[in-house]
Design a protein that fits this description.
The structure holds two protein chains of two kinds. By secondary structure, chain A is α/β, with parallel strands linked by helices. Chain A is about 35% helix and about 25% strand. Chain A starts with a strand and ends with a helix. Chain B has two domains: about 1-40 and about 170-365, no CATH class; about 45-145, abc type-2 transporter like domain (abc type-2 transporter like fold, 3-Layer(aba) Sandwich), CATH 3.40.1710.10. Chain B has a four-stranded mixed β-sheet, sandwiched between helices. In chain B, strand 1, helix 3 (about 60-70) and strand 2 form a beta-alpha-beta unit. Classes of the chains: A alpha/beta, B alpha/beta.
């Protein structure tokens, strides 16, 4: 459904995306995972025909993003990273406006947006600018869906949205997927990667890895330890100074640490840290998450 | 078409929901017109003057009476010594001092001439010039009529002055066309450029571009509401000018409105052009205000006569659209002339419109870059 071949794009000096290739199958939820500045937005704008790539080709639903931009604009629903609806129009007016822009009516495609719209319908007379973050996202999604798009492109839809709304939002995406819509979604939240069928880990304009979230984790074979102590600040400095540490970073209440060799044991870290006078020390094996995979791949770059 | 109507509805909602826009569109024209028409009035009436009469004879008293009954002057103070002149000017009590020398009547009768000194406060040069002109006119008139009746001067030439098209020299005749040009420029160019760049700034342009809307639909949808509102404004200004200030409309009203329509179109296309350059509302407003408003006021011949400007500015004023529009307006309203007299100006406005539209189309991006 979406085909990206060796896409590169730079703004003046800065290389925003370089040589990116991937393919999204019909009915798939494909995630672009990476921190700010990874090039997710640029890539999406190229696919949305809003920017022209310097090199490479891309097609959406079989249409070329440069030549057939008009056709793509008709069949794709887009939700930009910033809330991009009219804040001085009401919920209802926004929805009606986008319906007419796409030459359809709210009634005609109500079935598709019903599940989402029903949650904001009680506020339909409220100005969009006065909605909460979660409701704004729902409205934006409704507007992006109003013309029954075959592909949905969502740029960081859950940024700045509370945890409950985020979960609801992903439930909605799953439902849309069940209706056969192909979804390309970007997010800086690693935990959301597990909700995608496949993900591309992105960093500084490059794709580090493309796979299903499960495979990504399975393929991570290195030993990973979670370490905790009373003085976390001192802990991270000491552990990074240790010659057997490959890398260490804070993850929730623990440090995730990998040794520079796979045979570095938990006990080695433990005795080193005891020697450094750390108290309430906890060191144990853990299973990697997507974030660990990401940090590992980033370290290799 | 449904797309377009939907877009128009949205635009009108934006306009009616934004109090600032509403004030600029509907409040500003009226306030400006009343301000310029009533308050910033450059016509002179009731200026205070002081008289220093060193002869106190019949003639000087008659001249004083003439001056004071003209309607232009009021007696501010009667001075006794020439030392006081400085003081009255310093304290700002009067704008002009009229000094009659000693033995005025006698000298006049004996020698056929006498001296009157007019001292004016030229810290406001325009007023000073006008006051002294008025006063010398009145004095000369008096002397000629009252004193020279019996004297036969050989080959005397009397000049008779009549101010055509604005007999009483009312400045409001100048202001109404000027304000009309300014307001239409402001609303059409500034408001359109702001409303388009607002979409860019708030990111809604990104969604519009990613939709099947054609650029021409976006632009027309943005422009049409302001075209209508500006036209209503042109009418309002014209009506206030006519009914409140008595500015005549001697020529064809339809022709006047057609020319206004042309000017609005020109300003709108200029607004679109600005918005294609400006990345956000601030820049759009800045360009509109600085590059359009100030030159409109200063260089269009609205405030200052173009003939008096230094050569570079005179040449520069040629590219100011309001300059030509003001000429057209004055011709139609005050002289009652038709297209045969303003075809050149009309043609210039038309070419400017086409130029701006062509540049805007060239600059309008179907993508984000």
């Amino acid at each position: 459904m979406i085909n990206v071949q060796h896409i590169s794009k730079s703004y003046k000096e800065i290389q925003a995306v370089s040589d990116i290739s991937f393919e999204v199958k019909k009915g798939e939820i494909f995630g672009l995972i990476g921190p700010d500045g990874a090039g997710k937005t640029t890539l999406m704008r190229i696919l949305m025909t809003l920017l022209i790539q310097d090199e490479g080709q891309a097609t959406m639903g079989g249409f070329d993003v440069i030549k057939d931009y008009k056709k793509i604009r008709k069949m794709v629903g887009y939700m930009p990273g910033r809330f991009s609806l009219y804040q001085d129009l009401t919920v209802e007016e926004n929805l009606n406006f986008f319906a007419t822009v796409f030459q359809t009516t709210v009634e005609e495609n109500y079935e598709l947006i019903k599940d989402i719209y029903i949650q904001i319908e009680p506020f339909k007379k409220r100005l969009a600018g006065k909605l909460s973050g979660g409701m704004k996202q729902k409205l934006a999604l409704s507007c992006a869906l109003i013309h029954k798009p075959e592909i949905l492109v969502l740029d960081e839809p859950t940024t700045g949205v509370d945890a409950v709304s985020r979960k609801e939002f992903w439930d909605m995406l799953k439902k849309l997927q069940a209706k056969g819509i192909t979804i390309l979604v970007s997010t800086p939240y690693m935990d959301e990667a597990n909700l995608c069928n496949r993900v591309a880990l992105m960093q500084k304009g490059k794709v580090l890895n493309i796979d299903t979230p499960q495979k990504l984790v399975e393929n991570y074979t290195r030993k990973l330890y979670a370490i905790r102590a009373n003085d976390m600040h001192q802990l991270i400095q000491d552990i990074r100074a240790y010659e057997k540490t490959d890398y260490a970073y804070a993850f929730g209440q623990y440090l995730h640490v990998t040794g520079n060799e796979d045979d570095v044991e938990a006990t080695e870290f433990e005795s080193y840290l005891i020697q450094k006078n750390h108290t309430k020390l906890e060191v144990f094996d853990i299973h990697p998450t997507i974030e660990d995979v990401f940090m590992d791949r980033m370290g290799e770059q | 078409m449904k797309q377009f109507i939907g877009f128009l509805r949205k635009e009108f909602l934006h306009i009616f929901r934004d109090p600032r826009t509403m004030i600029i569109i509907f409040g500003l024209p009226i306030v400006q017109l009343l301000l310029f028409g009533k308050v910033i009035n450059s016509d002179l009436q009731d200026s205070r003057i002081a008289i220093l009469d060193q002869s106190h004879d019949n003639t000087t008293q008659q001249i004083t009476a003439k001056l004071l009954s003209s309607g232009y002057f009021l007696m501010g103070k009667e001075l006794l010594a020439s030392d006081d002149v400085e003081d009255v000017f310093r304290s700002g009590q009067v704008k002009m001092v009229v000094t009659f020398g000693p033995d005025f009547e006698k000298t006049l009768e004996r020698e056929g001439k006498a001296d009157v000194q007019l001292l004016a406060d030229a810290s406001d040069p325009n007023t000073a010039r006008i006051l002294t002109n008025y006063a010398s006119g009145i004095i000369n008139d008096y002397v000629r009529k009252e004193k020279m009746q019996n004297v036969q001067l050989p080959n005397q030439i009397n000049t008779e002055v009549r101010m055509l098209y604005n007999e009483s020299l009312k400045s409001v005749y100048m202001f109404v066309p000027g304000i009309m040009a300014m307001i239409l420029m402001l609303i059409s160019a500034m408001m359109t450029s702001i409303s388009i760049s607002k979409e860019k700034e708030l990111g809604t342009m990104e969604v519009l571009l990613a939709s099947p809307l054609k650029p021409i639909q976006i632009v027309l949808g943005k422009v049409t509401p302001y075209l209508l509102l500006s036209f209503i404004n042109a009418l309002t200004i014209m009506l206030i000018g006519y009914f409140v200030f008595g500015v005549p409309i001697k020529g064809s009203f339809v022709f006047l409105m057609t020319e206004s329509f042309l000017f609005i179109l020109m300003a709108l296309s200029l607004g679109i052009l600005i918005s294609t350059i400006a990345p956000n509302q601030m820049v759009a407003m800045f360009i509109s205000l600085l590059a359009l408003m100030l030159p409109t006021i200063l260089l269009s011949g609205f405030m200052f006569p173009i003939e008096n400007m230094p050569l570079p500015l005179r040449i520069f004023s040629n590219i100011m659209p309001p300059r030509w529009f003001i000429v057209i307006l004055k011709n139609i309203m005050l002289k009652g002339t038709g297209i045969t007299y303003v075809w050149k100006e009309t043609l210039i406005l038309m070419s400017m419109t086409f130029l701006f539209i062509a540049l805007s189309i060239k600059n309008f991006k179907i993508r984000l870059e």
